[in-house]
Amino acid sequence: MGTKRHFKVWRGDDQGGDLQDYQIEVNEGEVVLDVIHRLQATEAPDLACRWNCKAGKCGSCSMEINGMPRLGCMTRMSTFEEAETVTVTPLRTFPVIRDLVTDVSFNYEKARETPAFAPPADLAPGDYRMKQVDVERSQEFRKCIECFLCQNTCHVVRDHEENKVAFSGPRYFIRAAELDMHPLDSKTDRKEYAQASQGLGYCNITKCCTEVCPEHIKITDNAIIPMKERVVDRRYDPLVWLGSKIFRRGQTDGDETGARPDPSDVREHHSHGGSSGDPVAEEQAQRGVNWHRQVPHPTSPVVDERGKMPLSEFTFDRPAAPSPFGDDVSFPLPADHLNYAHPDQKD
Ligand code: SF4
Ligand code: SF4
Ligand code: FES
Fold first, then answer.
1. Among protein residues, the one whose CA lies closest to atom 2 of ligand 1
2. Are residues 275 and 129 in the same domain?
3. Structural domain for 67, as ranges
4. Secondary structure (H, E, C), 149-194
5. pTM value?
């Protein structure tokens, strides 16, 4: 037999809303998402809430529970006191669509901006080889379920809408770190990119993102700090700095007096000592953060003007987005396209 518990749930839409009180039955072993479902089945059938797996794996039931960003399906009711009021609100950093559902497309835009993994041009498919030690380095970051709790928590954008253009957020810093650690990624220097275009410099390593990550990814310690350290090494190592002054003398942002750049100028002139060896990344880094870059917007609407999903989404033979494997690849692959050979195998 369950007990009655007091819940406050935010109800409303993009025009406004407020917290509404509910007395709702809670049974042993239940999680907050179970209680939301019981509300939908009883007093609030029109309560909007996103969820899919109820197993902490799809990342869709992100919400704020007593002010803490959490997964509804992974938050046990037993973690609250018997008499405690449980307050459930939508993610604060993203615009509300309705009730507990927010528009998280900011994150998809940042994902689109991140240059994709690119192996060397002369590497044939099937010749990709990675040592286990290289796999293990970035394995942690592959656990991300894209719940966007870290993105929601980060103070750089949580209270500063204006920073969203220039800041990609912790989820995309771990993506940059993962690709930076990938031995076959030759696209660009990911550290330089993170600093110059993803707004890594805004992060002041408060570790709030790490604290809320349901996958326990050490976002700050294992991705952000190592990337920051390497950027700083380049920029402030005295020998590298001196070398860059000698070799860059006469260039537009050179300083005739040899004085260090004024930190207040850092937005305009990021002076990276040393070179990544990638001229495109280096040029981008010298220009500094691209404050005015255009953020691409999603090209196909998820719903039409009546709020319904277009029929083509159900009938089209492939999803609207381009396939990451290339549009000319169909599945299942022919058996001779699969390569199971171990790197140490002789033939
Ligand atoms: S550590 Fe950096 S990215 Fe993470 S929440 Fe703090 S400021 Fe944001
Ligand atoms: S890094 Fe963690 S908190 Fe951020 S989106 Fe991935 S799983 Fe969620
Ligand atoms: S419903 Fe999938 S993570 Fe909660």
1. 203
2. yes
3. 3-102
4. HHHHHCHHHHCCHHHHCCCCCHHHHHHHHHHHHCCCCCCCCHHHHH
5. 0.71
